[in-house]
Amino acid sequence: MAELKEKDAEHLHQEDANTKDTESDSSKMPADSEACEQKPIHEASTNPVKTEDKNGQTSSTVVSERHVSIQTTLEGLEALVDLNGAGRKSCPLCPEEKFKACYSHKLRRHLQNLHWKVYVEFEGQRMCICHLPCRQLKSSLGSDQTQGRLVAHYHCVVCSVTIARKTDMISHLKRHINKSETEASYSGSSDVPFEDPVPAGQAYEIMKELGTNVQLLPNHTTPQKTDTYFSRKMKTNRQLVFCSLAVLAEERNPLECLDAFGATGIMGLQWAKHLRNSVKVTINDINEACVKMIKENCHLNHIRVEGNRTGRQLDGAGDADAPIASVEVVKMDANVIMHLRPFDYIHLDPFGTAVNYLDAAFRNVRNLGIVSVTSTDTGSLYSKSLNVTLRHYGCQIVRTEYYRELAARMVLASVARAAARCNKGIEVLLAVALEHFVLVVVRVLRGPTQADASAKKLRQLLHCQWCEERVFLKPGSMVEENLYRQLPCQCHGSMPGKTAVELGPLWAGPLFNTGFLRRMLVAAVQHNMEDVQPLVKTLICEADCTTLKPFPVPGYSALSNQVECGVVIKTLQKVEEADTSDQSGKRKNTGEESGNVLKKIKADTSLEHPAFYYSIHRHSIRGMNMPKLNKFLQYLTEAGFRVSRTHFDPTGVRTDATLAQFKEVLTKYSVPTYSSAPQSSAVSSDRRLTL
Question: Residue ranges under compositional bias (Basic and acidic residues) (predicted)?
Answer without folding.
Answer: 1-26
